[in-house]
Write a structure and sequence with these properties.
Strand content of chain A: over 45%
Number of strands of chain B: 11
Strand content of chain B: over 45%
Largest sheet of chain A: 6 strands, mixed
Radius of gyration of chain A: 14 Å
Oligomer: heterodimer
Structural class of chain A: mainly beta
Number of strands of chain A: 11
Order of helices and strands of chain B: EEEEEEEEEEE
Radius of gyration of chain B: 13 Å
Helix content of chain A: under 10%
């Protein structure tokens, strides 16, 4: 079945530094990769996503890169702020045999702490 | 502001009770999802409805029974739950069930089984 590995499990940075979270996926047919931010006690919030026909996407301080050959994708946060502190989940969509499914498989999450 | 609304926000029930979780969206999305999330873990997919038809059941025990009355509503009926079923239950929706559309989550129902 589909598997998504996420590293690191915890990440601590100083305000203003950059943060990078990496994920690898097992299904070469996966074609959609969202990233979610979840603050304590709140819902997962979609912050950026990328499709397999694109190698990089940027939205202000957040960027995502995708390497289809290596089957890995990464989240980059620049100029981190204390309010960026949260759990970040990567995910991949599993598609089987040409039939599309909405099965979103998540990585185990990264606890990001930004120190003022 | 979340565009996916879940009720109730909190629910405490005994193992013999019957209760229902409700989810509503008015974004015109045609795919809706139930996820279960334990503390410090990622959401785990339970069910997917696409165009009001059940398209994925991730081998969920029959004590959880989903229902999609129309394209805007999704229910999860609960009966004879176990203490290990205590978790945050998240509903999500996406434009369609084709798998490469963003899924938007509600705030969840925090369920406690006594």
């Amino acid at each position: 079945g589909e598997n998504v590995e996420q590293h690191p499990s915890t990440l601590s940075v100083q305000e203003g530094d950059s943060a990078v979270i990496k994920c690898t996926y097992s299904d070469s047919a996966s074609n959609y990769f969202p990233w979610y931010k979840q603050e304590l006690g709140k819902r997962p919030q979609l912050i950026i996503d990328i499709r397999s026909n694109v190698g990089e996407k940027k939205d202000q301080r957040i960027a995502v890169t995708l390497n289809k050959t290596a089957k890995h994708f990464s989240l980059h946060i620049t100029e981190t702020q204390p309010e960026d502190s949260a759990v970040y989940f990567c995910a991949a969509i599993f598609n089987a045999g040409g039939t599309s499914y909405g099965k979103l498989t998540f990585g185990q999450g990264t606890i990001l702490t930004v120190h003022p | 502001d979340t565009e996916v609304t879940q009720t109730p926000k909190h629910l405490v029930m005994g193992m013999t009770n019957k209760k229902s979780l409700k989810c509503e969206q008015h974004m015109g999305h045609r795919a809706m999802y139930w996820y279960k999330q334990k503390a410090k873990k990622p959401p785990e997919l339970m069910f997917v409805y696409s165009y009001e038809k059940l398209s994925i059941n991730e081998s969920v025990p029959s004590r959880f029974s989903p229902e999609c009355p129309n394209s805007s509503l999704l229910n999860l009926h609960l009966h004879a739950l176990q203490p290990e079923d205590s978790a945050l239950y998240l509903c999500a929706s996406s434009q369609d069930g084709h798998g490469n559309q963003p899924q938007h989550f509600g705030d969840g129902t925090r369920l406690s089984i006594l």
